[in-house]
Amino acid sequence: MAEGRTTNGHAAQTRLGGLLSERAGQRAATTAPPRLMGAAKGGVSLPSPTLNAVVREMPAGSGMGVADTGAAADLPGVLPVPWTEITALRQQVANDMDAHKRERRRAGDVLEDQDQEELARALVRKRVAAWAQEWSLKNPPLGGEELERVRSEVFNLIFLAGALQRVLNRPDVEDVLIDGDVMLVDAHGRPQERLRSPFSSREQAIEWVNHMAGSSGHGERMLSYTTGRVDFRLPDGSRVAATLLTTNIVIAIRRHGLERATLGDLVQRGAVDPVLATFLSAAVKAGLSLIIAGNMGTGKTTMMRALGREVPAKERLATLESDRELYLDNAGTPAHVLAFEAREGNGERDASGRMTGEITLAELVTISLRYKATRVMVGEVRGEEAVAMLEAMIAGGTGSMCTLHARDPESVVDRLMVPLTRAGLSDQAAYRLVASAVDLIVYIDAIDESDLPGGRMHRFVTHVWETAGLGERGGVALSRIFSPREPHEAEQGLMPEVRAVPTRTPVSERRMARLERAGFDRRWLPGYPNGQWPALDLVKP
Length: 541
What we know:
Layout: E1 3-5, H1 22-25, H2 83-106, H3 113-138, H4 144-159, H5 165-168, E2 173-179, E3 182-187, E4 193-196, H6 202-215, E5 229-233, E6 239-243, E7 250-254, H7 263-268, H8 274-285, E8 290-294, H9 300-308, E9 316-321, E10 336-341, H10 361-369, E11 375-378, H11 385-394, E12 401-405, H12 412-422, H13 427-437, E13 440-448, E14 457-470, E15 476-485, E16 497-502, H14 509-517, H15 524-527
Parallel strand pairs: 8-12, 8-13, 9-10, 9-11, 11-12
Antiparallel strand pairs: 1-15, 2-3, 2-7, 3-4, 5-6, 6-7, 13-14, 14-15, 15-16
Helix pairs in contact: 2-3, 2-4, 3-4, 10-11, 11-13, 12-13
């Protein structure tokens, strides 16, 4: 029964990209997803293929694992020479490369990425060899390992992330925060590590930020006292935000550990079970429009990335983001993907007060439809793009998706109302727009035990709602299709569960018909009332 609510690839091109999926191969406890029984309770036989057809094998890695990360004190390391020597060598090599590329261009030749890296390694070795001779005249000569460290730092500063590279090379690292002299590292399945900063001074950290921002293609984004914050991407696609608006310089790096995530990967990580994975896969293939909601760090982007790879190959998908995180425009996505990115202004304003050169997410929604995109995915809805997104869903963008920040499941529609009403819609118009445009709302939650011995972060879907028009009090009516089961709700054979399990509420016949055409069997929902979740390995009871 409806519940009325009045409130509601780039990484593949870098050395780091190959490491992002290797953590999956280290998790022996989850190497295979749970399999379906031959028949459901009550004698309901399930047709072939079973739900596990949607679960794909995770690529197994052969690189670093947990045992290879080393002691915390060894991670950033200590440079054998002053940082100024490294930056001077980097500038010399950069000048050498620019001169070499100019000569190649005059000859009508262009260096490919791999050729540029090979050239850089040769130039680094040549420059460091000459520099080492001069250095030894006034300082103790460097050993072989120390010289190799200098060569690596110079190369990393040109192509990768410089002083941070040894930390970012760890495939389990998800977030890094540098605050002055301290660096905090959050890794999957590990307690937070507190290390020293890889930068010896504030000036060195600012220089690194500005060098990497310039190398990212965002040359207009510089960190200074007049521009107190900057956002950019590292070569591996990680998102960086740096600011001088705090007591110390603060640098936050957000990693995309599951950049090529599929629903099968999420099953193995415990974010969904095979029943729910098959339902969501069919929903995408059937062209249902989804909102993926959750709190910060729960895996909304990873979920949408996995669902984007369920879009049929015959379709054209446009991804719209303020900063690229989805990375669906690679060989791992069946559909044709156009990856749009909003553009910041250059600081000047025109007569209307608009930043010169600015392209907003709301404008990208309209722009993407001109390229005959059959679906639109907005990285995160925060402002006026909410209206454009929902109108695009109604106007033919069936199967479109977006993510939305919401602190709890019950506040999703309320949270979506904020940008809609801010754009000038009345409450009634906003509710009608949501009810008409959205088919399903998926909520992701997390239990964080990473601060406990043996604990980790558990991320999983807790709710799936179907919109059911307007409620009696004018809000959006929602039907719970999947939700947790509280202990007081437990009946015989139905166990308490904090993750999403099928409810007794049926999907509307119109949408169920579309799901069945996409390969879903309606008998799977009542046939598996407890879902197929593996045991949740919580540390605390």
